[in-house]
Specification:
mainly alpha, 40 helices, about 5% strand
Amino acid sequence: MGTKYNVLYNGNIALQAGIDGVNDAYSENFWEILPVERMQVTDEIQKPGESKNADFERAEEKAIKAVQTHDMVIKGKEKNPQIDEAYLLLGQARYYDQRFIPALEAFNYILFKYPTSDKINTAKVWREKTNIRLDNNELAIKNLKQLIDEEPLSQQDLADATAIMAQAYMNMDAKELALEQLKIALSNTKSHNERARYYYISAQLYEEFEQIDSANVNYDRIIEMHRKIPRPFYINAHLSKIRLTDLDNYNRLEFQEYIEDLEENRENRPFLGKIYYQIAQYYQNIESDSIAEVYYNKSLRSPTTEQKLKALDYSILGDMNFDRSQYKIAGAYYDSTLANYEPNTRIHRLFKRKRDNLEDVIFYEDIAQRNDSILNLVSLSEADRLALFTEMVEKIKQKDEALKREQEASKRDNTGITQSIAGAPQGRAAVDTEKQESSFYFYNQTSVAFGKNEFLKIWGERSLEDNWRLSTKGGGAASSISAEDELAASATDEERYDVNFYLSKIPSEEREIDSIAKDRNFAYYQLGIIYKEKFKENLLAKNKLQQLLENNPEERLVLPAKYNLFKIYEELNLTDEAAIAKADILSKYPDSRYAELLRNPRAALGIDENSPENVYENLYTLFNDQKYAEVITKCEKATFDFDGGDMVPKFEILKSAAKGRLEGFEAYKEGVNYVALNYPNTDEGKRAATLMQTAIPILEKKEWKNEEEATNFYVVYQIENAADQEIEDFMALLDKKVAGINYYNLTTSKDVYNRNTTFVVVHGLKSINGAKGFTQILNDDKKEKQKITKPYFAISSENYAILQRHKNLNAYLELP
């Protein structure tokens, strides 16, 4: 009696408290098929003896105490009938504490030690639940089938056994068999919560089998239970029915009344995010996109919206804007989508690819919009500028005054509340008095809503981070802010109302204005090419390229823009415009590659040797042959000829490498930095940015290494202003001499040092002394008439790399 009503009683109370805590912390994921058991298993590793939950730890302690202090084994037989209950409590406490191996030991002990216990079937069910948690699904199914076939089970034990068998079948992807077991569990359980869960899982499985009528029957059964079950099941059953409704065979007026009732029901406020989402889905299905967009945004703004739902809202709004060719806004929505999906998941990678495809559009649209806005300010007269900023300052004042009035109203309201509380009964006054008595701005919902709306109008959604005002930090549906808004954002409190502050920020230097216009024009050209090539949006591309030509662009953009416009006119069947564009190119640029493409369309297929791909391959071959000066010259020509094309960054990076080999580290660094800054959204630009952060700081070091510790040395012959044949002759003689030295594995190579100097290098020497005395080794044969007499120096392989990188030969030769 002491075991039952003292130790185990308190242990079961602690167990139930722990289970209630687990249930409260668990959040149902109705987006996926629900698990049979409401418990979140984590991957957190526990040390031996550790517990995740204090209640389960207490329950385990009580169970152990019952066994240790109340165990009554007399003549090999247990006389205390509560000890099997203690082991059951022990196993359950460990199970819920997610220590499944120790739990399995406890359940197995009951089966081994107490085979006649009245809890034997319950222990068997719990053992198989534990096996399923340990992924022993087949074993669990086998044991459960045997239990059901051989033992007379109570209704609840049968319900538990079949329910967990259904979970095992689902784990093994045998979902048809899982449905059969759930039907048995439903007919035997008396728990309303369990019935709601099993009905919901069955409906989800029927949905997966595309048996919509059967799914709806199960959702209807959940709805009929109404207040007997947790509200989330009731609401999600309604929403699932809405999702599955065949609108072609349903009275739309009745349907709209149905979903509006769900929206207006005060009890459904905790679920408004999902309700708005489902309403938006309905309107999108009947092609009322504008209303659908309103509801998707309402779903986003709902304080009850969960992370998964936010991701869905953002992704759908992104797709809607993408379909409308509003790629910049779509990219902002995809940014927010990525923030709400777990990294390194399949869905995250899918939207990452979508977002990456929009990277160039967003980058160049930002430049185009911002610079257009600045140039518009530059073009205005002094009077127009003054009028514009005067009006802007007035609007800022009005907004600030409106906000001030809201804050004062909030303060008055809170003062009234405080006075009311002072005369209210003590119990009522105790509710939230600290918050109510404060005049803090954020405690007044009207003021907060006003402030949020004003912020969103100007900035869109912004993350809480440094430099949040930058246009690249934008999120949600906000578009790029104008130059005026950017100036207002950069102003201090004193400068906000000062018109002269804004006027002083307008560029006035001709050089600065030209640079802004140049960047704007290049952005327009890139946008035209991207819309044409990547997104096949010929109308958008035509618009951008025509705007570019109206902006008096630099000469290098004119011809490629005209040629691409010609191709767009052809695809849009604008024959007259295409003919005019073609005639213009042939008359004004008859010797250009684009004119050749118009005269010989087969050249556009990349068959001719002048295609950018062939030109690049030829230049890369020259680079490998150390024709660095020729590579630099031809790369510069190629970047002009193919300006705006995908190959230009490749030519630039190749030119940087050639300059580095010929002129040294600083030239290479400058070239890599140029590619990183001017082509930031290309693969080459991204690699260049990575080089600037990682490799360049390492390569910049030019301190000489200690050659006493080196193990690999070169002998370097320095040849100045020599013809290629002279160098080849010398190398032939050197190779002949080197071949006669058997005790070293020597090889030779030719390396360009700069435009006037060539190195002939002997590799394979192992000591500095051997390298310094190399001429004596070569000329040991006194009968040999041809002697190597050219001056040389010895150097370690590490220092040779530094010498070639920084072109500091004199500094090395001057070393003591």
